Task: inverse folding
């Protein structure tokens, strides 16, 4: 797996617990807020004195790593978040007024205010959240630090300082500086200019009429419900080639070469570069094609049309079957990489504080959940501080891998295709984020559906790729509007006793059709016991199991079925999902992460909450645990009461 720079690991959760936090059998006196404040103040005293080695002693032994030293180097103002360069502003912590919350008899969280300060700008605030572990009646240790917001705020403030103290010509290319000036002139006619798209050294301007909602400039993934604006496009000669009537205008040539995709009220259309409306924005979906005879297939309700090479639209296609055209859809069946170098044009923000470039994904790839609607990449037209590519945010690259080996039986009323997407995030979301995507070609209803599943379902926020030891994906229809999507995922769940953990294994998504899209039914359970009745097939699958305490002494093995400890977990998580208080407190500890909520009340009995499916699955699992032959009729009779 690709080595990640230090910042990538710091950015999401600076310190991940090595393994899992297990509550010890003997209960300590609860942490006291006053004691925790004293502990944090003592830690901060070492930070102020610049004593990295002394400050590292405040962390649990298994956290004294290079990553901790980088965090401490940032807090002591020795380096920036890149881990190498000198900072251009100072950070200070206010531990005295930390917001402390006691979470259980051994742990507490402390939200600590951080202040960024530079003589050239007003100071700004951020926060760090520490998890504090009470080791015994006298000692505390830091076991986890969530720095997601801190790193994002740090990088943003760093950019502001850098832009303030550095001459513009050393930051921005000539074409960007010229675009800034032109954008100011356009504000006499429009309320805002939000993006520039540079095509063959010529600049196009994305303009807004109306009130620009908070967040549109930086988070364009969707138009907010209370927004009151329309977007248009102005060409290099300052002629309005797309009127300010649309919700979103895509990159020039981003979907179909020579055309500009537009969206209005969730409908799609196209303009050409001369301002001609080629395709009115009345189509639900647009599928660009690899062929030269036809540019795209247009979907309007249940009807399909061709956008021809001469930019005319065909009559409704008689007896059209979407399954027949799928292999001709652009990028279908392809594996490819997207990055700032793969874009023909450079689209950038009209902002001196936000230095990435952006790509508006073709609507069909966003609707099928293969790509995010908006992607940020490093901006080749701007220069920031050292390591700024890693710190500014966005993505270094997105790898889309088509799995040609996994195919469903073509005789089904649906076909499935599978992709693995690896998004190499930078900055505040840093890390390699992997998702498994399924495309379902629904032959009955003549449509294509897509769903994206994150693979990291364990404790903490994961960002690593799968080991490839297990690599299963399959889809089956439960009925016409419910699909089951099984895919290998990072589960990282400990079993009772803490000596065994599931590392990887199949996870089941139950996908319901809502408003023409596949949406996963919500479930916090690890095993598929909530929506379907189990049978033996759900006890088979490739699992990677870790045996022994997390670390070098542990061993991993692969099994092809659910073992007894997993069956026990499977049964008890049904009860845990209803906030059941187990007589054995160690089971409460096992489920603490997966079923955590603001309401910590536990129920002594949850029988009234159990569904028919729950009762069936509990009986099914009990039979397996007791190694008795299954009597399905008897189980059904018992669970129907």
Result:
């Amino acid at each position: 797996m690709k080595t990640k720079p230090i910042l990538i690991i710091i950015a999401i959760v600076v310190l991940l617990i090595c393994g899992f936090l297990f509550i010890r059998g003997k209960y300590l006196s609860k942490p006291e807020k006053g004691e925790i404040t004293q502990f944090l103040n003592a830690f901060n005293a070492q930070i102020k004195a610049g004593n990295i080695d002394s400050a590292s002693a405040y962390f649990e032994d298994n956290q004294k790593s290079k990553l901790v030293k980088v965090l401490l180097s940032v807090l002591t103002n020795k380096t920036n978040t890149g881990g190498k360069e000198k900072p251009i502003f100072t950070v200070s912590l206010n531990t005295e007024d930390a917001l402390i919350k006691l979470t259980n008899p051994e742990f507490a969280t402390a939200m600590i205010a951080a202040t960024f300060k530079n003589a050239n700008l007003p100071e700004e605030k951020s926060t760090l959240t520490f998890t504090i572990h009470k080791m015994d009646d006298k000692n505390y240790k830091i076991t986890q630090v969530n720095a997601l917001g801190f790193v994002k705020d740090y990088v943003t403030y760093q950019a502001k300082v850098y832009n303030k103290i550095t001459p513009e010509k050393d930051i921005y290319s000539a074409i960007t500086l010229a675009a800034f000036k032109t954008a100011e002139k356009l504000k006499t006619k429009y309320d805002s200019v939000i993006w520039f798209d540079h095509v063959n050294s010529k600049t196009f301007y994305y303009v807004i009429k109306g009130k620009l909602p908070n967040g549109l400039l930086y988070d364009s993934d969707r138009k907010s419900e209370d927004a009151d604006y329309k977007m248009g496009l102005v060409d290099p000669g300052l002629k309005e080639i797309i009127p300010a009537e649309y919700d979103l205008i895509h990159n020039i040539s981003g979907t179909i070469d020579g055309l500009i995709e537009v969206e209005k009220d969730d409908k799609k259309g196209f303009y050409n570069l001369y301002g001609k409306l080629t395709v009115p924005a009345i189509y639900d979906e647009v599928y660009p094609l690899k062929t030269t005879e036809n540019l795209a297939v247009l979907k309007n309700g249940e009807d399909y049309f061709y956008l021809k090479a001469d930019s005319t639209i065909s009559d409704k296609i008689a007896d059209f079957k979407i399954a027949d055209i799928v292999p001709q859809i652009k990028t279908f069946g392809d594996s490819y990489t997207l990055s700032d170098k793969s874009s023909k044009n450079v689209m950038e923000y009209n902002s001196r504080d936000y230095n990435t470039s952006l790509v508006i994904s073709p609507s069909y790839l966003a609707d099928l959940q293969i790509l995010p609607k908006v992607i940020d990449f490093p901006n080749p037209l701007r220069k920031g501080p050292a390591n700024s590519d890693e710190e500014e945010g966005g993505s270094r690259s997105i790898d889309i891998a088509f799995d040609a080996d996994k195919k469903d039986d073509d005789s089904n009323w649906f076909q499935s295709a599978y992709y693995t997407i690896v998004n190499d995030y930078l900055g505040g979301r840093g890390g390699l984020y992997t998702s498994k995507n399924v495309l379902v070609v629904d032959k009955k209803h003549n449509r294509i559906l897509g769903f994206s599943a994150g693979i990291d379902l364990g404790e903490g926020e994961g960002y690593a790729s799968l080991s490839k030891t297990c690599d299963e994906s399959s889809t089956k229809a439960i009925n016409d509007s419910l699909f089951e999507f099984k895919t290998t995922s990072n589960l990282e769940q400990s079993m009772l006793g803490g000596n065994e953990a599931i590392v990887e294994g199949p996870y089941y998504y139950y996908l319901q059709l809502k408003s023409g899209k596949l949406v996963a039914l919500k479930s916090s359970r690890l095993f598929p016991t909530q929506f379907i009745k189990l049978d033996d097939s759900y006890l088979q699958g490739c699992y990677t199991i870790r045996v022994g305490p997390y670390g070098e002494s542990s061993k991993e093995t692969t099994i092809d079925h659910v073992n007894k400890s997993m069956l026990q977990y499977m049964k008890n998580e049904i009860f845990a999902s209803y906030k059941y208080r187990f007589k054995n407190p160690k089971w409460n500890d096992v489920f603490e992460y997966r079923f955590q909520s603001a309401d910590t009340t536990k129920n002594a009995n949850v029988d009234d909450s159990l569904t028919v499916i729950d009762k069936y699955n509990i009986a099914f699992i009990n039979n397996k645990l007791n190694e008795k032959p299954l009597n399905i009729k008897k189980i059904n009779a018992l669970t129907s009461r």
In short: The two ends are 52 Å apart (CA to CA). The chain has three domains: 6-165, 169-349, 403-639. Residues 148-165 form the longest helix (18 residues).
